[in-house]
Write a structure and sequence with these properties.
By secondary structure, this protein is mostly helical. It has one domain. It has nine helices and no strands.
């Protein structure tokens, strides 16, 4: 089932890049950075394959991808800032989020947000969604976009470079990243379970 879905996704990616070139790379990476799980592990290696064929330039491919990440992140950031934060402030208690967590997130992104965004942009799965909590915490926009670009460019370059080196075998890279995605998913799930358990216990204690 997963292979069939990926095959459909690849047809879409191929069509967009073939039609619009570098702009297509930016559009697709923008979609991925707007909290829509369109895998960059397919987008950028395919662009790298086109570099291998001689129809694209590696540096321009990486730059187009990083620009796209910024554009998509802008959408997710603003949704978090103007939509997500009011919802969390009003209904956060139903998902175990209080003003205490919001205050902590504000302090964290104010002090360490640049590092969190930079590192997150180098990690599968997490990179897709980091803009939303940054927006909810209202991390300074200028700093957010600078580190989004700085973290996204080497990610885009690395994937495109591997795709270029693998040539016609560029899709082999996806197998390794799918395994890594699963590991990241397990870590995030474990973190979510810990968060829910600890906050639920605190709520029960306060109700006693």
């Amino acid at each position: 089932m997963t292979e069939k879905i990926l095959a459909v996704v690849f047809v879409f990616i191929k069509a967009v890049i073939a039609t619009t070139g570098y702009a297509g790379v930016a559009i697709l990476m923008g979609i991925e950075s707007a909290c829509i799980p369109l895998p960059s592990e397919l987008i950028m290696p395919f662009a790298g394959y086109l570099v291998y064929e001689g129809s694209m330039n590696l540096l321009w491919v990486a730059t187009a991808g990083a620009i796209g990440c910024n554009l998509g992140s802008l959408v997710a950031y603003e949704i978090g800032c103007y939509g997500g934060r009011p919802l969390v402030e009003r209904y956060g208690r139903w998902i175990l989020l209080t003003h205490r967590e919001l205050d902590w997130a504000d302090r964290f992104f104010a002090r360490w947000g640049y590092l969190a965004v930079f590192i997150a942009r180098l990690l599968p799965v997490i990179r897709t969604f980091i803009a939303l909590p940054a927006g909810i915490a209202r991390m300074p926009r200028g700093r957010f976009h600078i580190y989004t670009f700085l973290g996204s460019w080497p990610w885009c370059y690395g994937l495109a470079y591997v795709g270029m080196k693998l040539g016609q075998n560029w899709r082999e890279i996806g197998k390794y990243f799918h395994q890594f995605d699963a590991v990241i998913g397990v870590i995030l799930l474990a973190g979510a379970i810990y968060f829910i358990r600890s906050h639920w216990k605190n709520r029960l204690r306060s109700a006693e």
